[in-house]
Amino acid sequence: MTSILPSAIHRIDRSAWLASLAQQSLIAEAELTPKPGLVDRRGSGVHPDLSLAMMRRSALAIEPYFREMALLCERGRPSQTVREQLAAIGRNAERAMLMATGGSNSHKGAIWILGLLISAAAMENEVDCTASGIATTAQAIASFEDRAGPRLVSHGDIVARRYEVSGARGEAGQGFPHVIDVGLPTLRRRRTQGATEVAARLDTLLSIMSRLGDTCLLYRGGIVALTAAMEGALAVERAGGVETESGRQELQLLDRRLLDLGVSPGGSADMLAATLFLDAVERRLIQIQADEGWPESSYGAN
Fold first, then answer.
1. 193 — phi, psi (to 5°)?
2. What is the band of 11 on the pLDDT scale with cuts at 50, 70, 90?
3. Closest by CA position to 276, among listed 2, 82, 57, 27
4. Contact at 8 Å (CB) between 43 and 31?
5. What's the pLDDT at 125?
6. Measuring CA to CA, which residue among 17, 18, 35 is closest to residue 291?
7. 2 in a domain, yes or no?
8. Domains in the chain, number
9. Is residue 97 part of a domain?
10. Looking at residue 105, which CATH number applies to its domain?
11. Which positions ≥6 away from 166 have C-beta within 8 Å?
């Protein structure tokens, strides 16, 4: 992985750097294989209207809007005005996403999550910018309501109220605990333990899945789907992670279970992308290592 010195960040355009890392984190999440129920190198998972190529196009299409958010927030502070301006940019990003995908929702949740984190990162002092500091600032931005545009009620909002889970808005309002307290510690611990980058990212996704009240799962399959995903992910963790034989077997069982239920942990995938983004920002990377994937014979097709 290539990193840069803080003094070099402005020379390469800090807003472009942040937007590039966000785009790379989305593609890295999409390419990570094998993921239970989700689009990956094997196929579309439970999403017949999506593909890996479409996910890549979507990430590239929304990158300019991420940069616009970063430019708006550079050296600024959270405020009502900034929140409403960011919301307007976010709506434009959603339109670009839908244009790139032919109307499919590939990254709506990620636009909200990464948009907040990019905006917060642009507000932070680049010399001592930390993941926790960015999350705290993002929390402050999210505390303001978007009063300028129509308040659209998403599927996640409906499910969050019905099942009393936080959802994407609640996650932001709490300072992204499943990224700061679960995702990043798991990712870094597994790297320290010598796991491959693919295994470290998969174990991070599963760690998030085992703890997050994922509204994507709840919307598509209710409590049955959420319970299956959480218990299956926990079974992989207890087996020692995806690099163990028993862990891989548990992962395959989880994948089949979610495919049978027709559900996928899209909220957890967004949290993984946010984890990869904050990890890269804190480490001053300019490139997020690509996921080469496991040998195809080891995971088959979904």
1. -80, -5
2. very low
3. 27
4. no
5. 85
6. 35
7. no
8. 1
9. yes
10. 1.10.4200.10
11. 160, 173, 174, 213
